Amino acid sequence: MLALLDVAARIERRLDHHLSATRGVSFSEYRLLKALSEARPHGAMRVAVAEAVALTPSAVTRALRPLEKIGLVTTERHERDARRSMAALTPAGAELLGDAERIVADVLDTLPVKGLPVETLAGLQRELGAPRTARRHP
Predict the structure, then answer these.
(1) CA quadruple 80, 84, 90, 96: dihedral positive or negative?
(2) In terms of CB atoms within 10 Å, which of 1, 71, 79, 94 comes out highest?
């Protein structure tokens, strides 16, 4: 498992480097933009974004601020409950995301994954991403 985590960290650093150098966003910011893209056209509550990217809602709030300042994201605060605040991708954010997706695909194409049990990893991702009550227990 530690080897898997090490590989994931190395891939993330490689993606981060390429995205930062070409589009000025980190891989973490790319993941936020991707989550918001999947919630288009109306956007998503920050708690839903947090669940999608495995962060806390407060971490998502902090991470969205710079994206909002540069016009990639809009936010709408809920008057009584900050957890229900909405965030949405702007047209500029959607355009940047399209470019970033091509960069991510290009980087992933360079990885030596021939013979890797991708289906097994995808199943693990789905299981770990499921709500705790829905997970299987031995």
Answers:
(1) positive
(2) 94
Residue 9 lies in a domain: yes
Give the whole-angstrom CA distance, residue 136 versus residue 124: 12
Asked if residue 7 has pLDDT above 70, the reply is yes
What's the CATH number where 70 sits? Answer: 1.10.10.10
Q: Please tell me what DSSP assigns to residue 135.
A: S
In the sheet that holds 86-89, the strands lie side by side as 44-45, 86-89, 73-76
Annotate 32-43 with b (16+ C-beta within 10 A) or e (fewer): bbbbbbebeeeb
pLDDT digits (tens, 9 = 90+) for 81-122: 766 788 999 999 999 999 999 999 999 888 877 667 777 777
Distance, in Å, from the CA atom of 41 to the CA atom of 80, rounded to the nearest integer, reads 23
Q: What confidence tens digit (pLDDT) does each residue in 22-58 have?
A: 999 999 999 999 999 998 778 888 888 998 998 998 8
Write out the residue range of the structural domain in which residue 18 sits: 2-110
Rounded Cα gap, residues 130 and 138, in angstroms: 16
- Per-residue confidence (pLDDT) for residue 132, from 0 to 100: 52
Residue 41, in any domain of the structure: yes
